[in-house]
Amino acid sequence: xxxxxxxxxxxxxxxxxxxxxxxxxxxxxxxxxxxxxxxxxxxxxxxxxxxxxxxxxxxxxxxxxxxxxxxxxxxxxxxxxxxxxxxxxxxxxxxxxxxxxxxxxxxxxxxxxxxxxxxxxxxxxxxxxxxxxxxxxxxxxxxxxxxxxxxxxxxxxxxxxxxxxxxxxxxxxxxxxxxxxxxxxxxxxxxxxxxxxxxxxxxxxxxxxxxxxxxxxxxxxxxxxxxxxxxxxxxxxxxxxxxxxxxxxxxxxxxxxxxxxxxxxxxxxxxxxxxxxxxxxxxxxxxxxxxxxxx
Length: 295
What we know:
By secondary structure, the chain is an alpha/beta fold. It is about 45% helix and about 15% strand. The chain has helices at about 15-20, 35-40, 55-60, 80-100, 120-130, 155-160, 180-190, 210-220, 230-240, 245-260, 265-270, 280-295; strands at about 1-5, 25-30, 45-50, 65-70, 105, 140-145, 145, 165, 175, 200, 205-210, 225-230. The chain has a seven-stranded parallel β-sheet, with helices on both faces. The protein has a three-stranded mixed β-sheet with strand order 7-9-11. A two-stranded parallel ribbon has the order 8-12. α4 (about 80-100) packs parallel to α5 (about 120-130), α8 (about 210-220) packs across α12 (about 280-295) and α9 (about 230-240) packs antiparallel against α10 (about 245-260). The model has no long low-confidence stretch (mean pLDDT about 95).
């Protein structure tokens, strides 16, 4: 198959490209950075250098593809996250239709079923709606849970305060996922000949935040590490004191609040994946320990 991957060689894009190349597919990886070309080609893939904001470039790159992995890369510099997601998803939809791509796997998020109160994830909700307007395309929205790699952001707090804390935590149940497991699920969907499912949830483990903290604490030599739950206002003030821009603070607080309330996982709980990914919290703890040591 000829498969196009957006998102360059990120935490999902690189393992996805590796899987597909090893399977013998002809893989093109889109990146906006010319310096990534050598690394992409070293994987055995073709580099397509250009911007995701250019629908003509996307159309040219998508033409002849059997499948496209479409994701909106994080861009925290964008003041209006929903507009950013709409722009890129709209460009994808236009290019996919023009190029006649028959199979699309879109990286969305758990919580994308909600139309308000989810912070950054609201962008995925609108991206799904735009892509759903495509006609004659086998479209699947991958909805992964809470990325393990988000936990890296707590390293500084643990070192400075000896604890983890946010406006979610404690006994809040978390749906956790490793980017490698997302890549594996994306590869399955991109290459399957079975009828496409409109939504597929992806998760690696399910644990309360307190258990995640305990396991991470053991791995870094801090037994008894706790993950405290702060109020939305406490979280907002702490972020503002760190100098985060208002638009980021608002999105992070909303997303955390919907995690704490359980709203993000409501639809997940009704459509849980039959099989969880292989990377459990204890497995990720080794990666966290390596990161923590250097932080």
